[in-house]
Write a structure and sequence with these properties.
With 142 residues, this protein is mainly alpha-helical. The protein has a single domain, classed as P-loop containing nucleotide triphosphate hydrolases (Rossmann fold). 56% of the residues lie in helices and 6% in strands. It has a two-stranded parallel ribbon with strand order 1-2. The longest helix is centred in the last third of the chain and has 19 residues. The chain is globular and about 45 Å long.
Length: 142
Amino acid sequence: MDLDVLLENKTGKSISEIFEGNGEAYFRDLEANILRELARQKTFILACGGGTPCFQDNMEWMKSNGKTVFLQANADTLLSNLKNGSKSRPLLSGATTEREKLEIIEQLLEERAFYYQQADISVRVESLNDDTIFQILKSIDG
């Protein structure tokens, strides 16, 4: 599952529309509420946005309710992925150049490092392949 998709489906609005109309604090409250609603699910894998672990004690909650995996990428890789993706990222909306976007991503990575380092498993995205994913899933399953 993807937390952003769940949030968009529940609200009928895009992440950008929520940020624009209601602000980041409102978005983070919704995100935390939906995250906690997932506790009813028996088994699942959830993709969450980069800010999710950094607000509302979400990292603590995720760790107490399952295993966390940090897919570690550098700022250049993240920027490249964002260019190739279909989602717009509200925190980058004020940046007009690639350099500005890269600087924002670097700043966010630095600010969020404390939370990311708490993940149960950390893996570089460059090393992701079928075998690595299998090993991660195997370690999570016990």
